[in-house]
Structure formats: structure tokens, C-alpha cells
Amino acid sequence: MTAYIIRRIFMGILTLILVTMLVFLLVRLLPGDPLMRYMANFSGTGQQNIMTPEQHEALLKQFGLDKAIYIQYWDWITDILRGDLGESLGVQQPISKLIADVLPRTAYIGILMFAVGTFGGILAGIYCALRRGTWLDNTITTIANIGLTVPVFWLGILLIYVFAYKLDWFPMYGWVAPWDNFWKSCRYVVLPVASVALGGIAGMARLTRSCMLEVIGADYVRTAWAKGLRERVIVVRHQLKNAMIPVVTSLGGTLAIILGGSVFIETVFSIPGMGRLMTQAIFDYDYQVVQASALIFGGIVIFSNLVVDIAWGWLDPRIRYE
Questions:
Q1: Do 110 and 253 have their domain in common?
Q2: In sequence order, which residues have a C-beta less than 8 Å from that of residue 67 and are 6 or more positions away?
Q3: Is residue 8 part of a domain?
Q4: Could you tell me the residue range of the domain that residue 7 belongs to?
Q5: What are phi and psi of 77, to 5 degrees?
Q6: What does the alpha-carbon distance between residue 249 and residue 21 come to, in Å, rounded to a whole number?
Q7: Is residue 126 located within the same domain as residue 227?
Q8: Are residues 16 and 156 in the same domain?
Q9: Whole-angstrom Cα distance, residue 290 to residue 283?
Q10: What is the number of structural domains in the chain?
């Protein structure tokens, strides 16, 4: 088990390095010059055509952008290992401070999306499998099929139009921290969470229903019924635990989808989180912020997949880590 975890950690680190290399290269292939935006912000004029060639050359040397790209990457990685994420070119602030300000907001909304999408989908899938063929099973399955095809950003805009603009039940956009005003915060997060969680519920419900139907007819389940065990005991102890292995496997991918969805949702609902910070950094050619955000998102996904791999052993004793 220990050797397996060490091997998986090593593979995760290697994957993260490859991700950072790809992001590092792609952001530098974007058209535009980040130094023009930096000079405009620094001068306070808002004009990007005031930099002389001498100033441009000096800034290239100041930020190390005159070096070969592999040297720039090495310098960035060594700074990361020392705990320095660099400084934003757009706002001239340490990136660690920017991320520390916005990461709790993304984490809070992401946890809500993950919890609602996962547990709501699992409960819906279990019910549909146990009551297969009923009108409610057919209704939930149909809605789940539709929910898988709806784009996150389109659903967010639709929810804003119906529940915020027309019905005026929730705010259209913005953010209130739960530690400042919990109930007001709940009103602000309902629509963003629903925009992503509805797709998660749909996918998880379909997967759980299929997995439950596979084990319902198994020999050990029929034996449990023949013994006269109660339905709750059979479902929880014999059916659910064996059906959850593929479901748990999908949780790592679900988290990745939620992180990707946060980029759209935070932009649509004007939530100052990691997704919006990363989107704004791309438009501002703020290389350092994009790289740091990709590093954090990649680390979260890789860590979640490691946890999922370890959870297999608890769900299925037949699994052996060699």
C-alpha cells in the first residue's frame, strides 16, 4: 500500500509538471504583449502606446522575458519550490496574496457544488434503480438525459433570466461571504451552485442507477432476500457498497468538471474567485497568474484522484495494491 501511494504521488508530480509546461508554453503563444498592459497600469494613463523601445527592453530584462523559454520555465519552477508564486503584471501585487483572497470563495462554492451534485445524484440514482419502471424513475431519467446536454454557462444565464430577472427571487450577480452574512450569502450562491450542480446530479444519477441495476440481480443479493433481511440492510450493506466503486471512480473527474465550470460560473455571476481571476489574467496577458492558477487547479485534481484510488481498497477488499 505504501509503495503504491508513493508511486502514485510520483506519477501525480510528473503529471503536474507536464501540465505546467503545457500552460507555460501556451500562454506565451497568445497574441499580444503583457508589458504594454503593465506599462499602461504603471503610468496610470490607461494608454498602451506610450512605451519606448528602450523601456520595453528594460522591462524584458526586469521580468526575465528576454531569456530563452526553457530558462524562464526553470526560473519559475525554482521560485515555486521556494514558495514564491511571483508577481502579477496586471495589478503589481504578489500572486500569493491575490490567490489567498479569492481561493476561499471558489473553495466554498466548489464544495457546495460537489456536495449537492454528488449526494443529490446518488440519492436520485438509488431511488430510480429501486423503483425501476415507475413514472418517477422515467421522469428523473429523462431530466437527467437533458441535464447532461445543457451547457453550464447557458444554464446559468437561463437561471438568471427566470429566477433573478423575472421572478426576482435571487440576486443576479455578486458575492457575499458566509462569514459576513450567512443567510444573505445563501441567496447569492443558490443560482451559481444550481448551474453546475444540476449537471452533476444528472450524470451521477445515471451512473448510480446503472451500477445499482447491475448488482440488484446478483446472487449474493438474492441470497440476502432469501434470508429475510430488511430492504434497508440489503440496499446499504450488499447493493450500495458494491455499486459505489464506479461512482467513486468518477468523483475525481466530477471535481475537475466543477473546477472548469467555476471559470464560467464566476464570470457569468461576477463572483471574484479563482475562475474569474484566471479568466481576467488571460485577457490581460498576465502570464504569472495564469500559470499559478493552473498549478493550483492541477494539484487539486491530482490529489483528488489519489484519494479516489485509495478509497477503492475500502470499498472492494478484492483490490490489492502491488
A1: yes
A2: 75
A3: yes
A4: 2-81
A5: -65, -40
A6: 27
A7: yes
A8: no
A9: 10
A10: 2
pTM above 0.90, yes or no: no
Q: Are residues 9 and 110 in the same domain?
A: no
C-alpha 251 chain-centroid distance: 11
87 three-state secondary structure: strand
Give residue-wise pLDDT tens across range 225-264: 777 777 777 777 777 777 777 777 777 667 777 776 677 7
Q: Which helix (H) or strand (E) holds 64?
A: none
Average of pLDDT values for 95-106? Answer: 85
Does 167 have pLDDT greater than 50?
yes
As beta bridge partners, residue 72 has none
Largest CA distance in the chain: 86
- Cβ-proximal residues to 260 (8 Å cutoff; 6+ apart), any chain: none
The residues near 310 (Cβ < 8 Å, ≥ 6 apart) are 5
Q: Does residue 272 share a domain with residue 150?
A: yes
Residues 297 and 150 in one domain: yes
Q: How many C-beta neighbours within 10 Å does residue 131 have?
A: 12
Question: Are the C-beta atoms of residues 263 and 195 closer than 8 Å to each other?
Answer: no
Cell numbers standing for residue 71: 530558462
Residues in the chain: 322
